[in-house]
Design a protein that fits this description.
The protein is mainly alpha-helical. The chain folds into 2 domains: about 5-70; about 80-130, no CATH class. Helix content is about 60%, strand content about 10%. It is built from 4 helices and 4 strands, in the order αααββαββ. The chain has helices at about 5-15, 25-70, 80-90, 110-115, and strands at about 90-95, 105, 115, 125. Strands 1-2 form a two-stranded antiparallel sheet. Strand 3 and strand 4 (about 125) form a beta hairpin. Helix 1 packs antiparallel against helix 2.
Length: about 140
């Protein structure tokens, strides 16, 4: 039961009681019922306005999502892409510069060159690639 319906019920009860609009108590009760009716109508208007704003906000949100798709491309997240990125990042290596003691990260192409220049201090680091023995080659 809505608030407006409850107030209408109270009005019906007051009419059924035959309240005297000329008595002090009757005036107070009828005035209270009128105020309740005004409050109920005001609340109903606020609910309608809130629903309208919510619908407008949903429309703006949908439009913004469309704009994001156009600007940034489809954002469909694919778990396979994450696995591919993890596999690619496995080829990253790290070493510590003996001069400045900063960690230097590099990929396999730098490893094949046998040297890397520290981006922090400019020190040239050389290294030789030792191959790990295969299971059958152990002595």
């Amino acid at each position: 039961m809505e608030i407006t319906e409850k107030v209408a019920y109270l009005k019906g009860l007051a009419d059924g009681l035959g309240l005297d609009a000329e008595s002090k108590e009757g005036k107070v009760l009828l005035a209270m019922i009128d105020v309740l009716d005004d409050i109920a109508l005001e609340i109903e208007d606020l609910k309608d306005a809130q629903d309208e704003l919510a619908d407008g906000l949903d429309a703006v949100s949908d439009d913004l999502e469309d704009v994001e798709d156009v600007v940034f491309g489809e954002d469909d997240y694919d778990e396979d892409e994450e696995e591919d990125e993890d596999e690619e990042s496995e080829d990253c290596y790290a070493t510590t510069c003996p001069n400045c003691e900063e960690v230097i990260y590099f990929d396999e192409s730098i490893l094949d060159d046998g040297e890397v220049i520290c981006p922090n201090c400019g020190e040239k680091l050389e290294f030789e690639l030792e191959e790990e023995p295969e299971d059958g080659d152990e002595e």
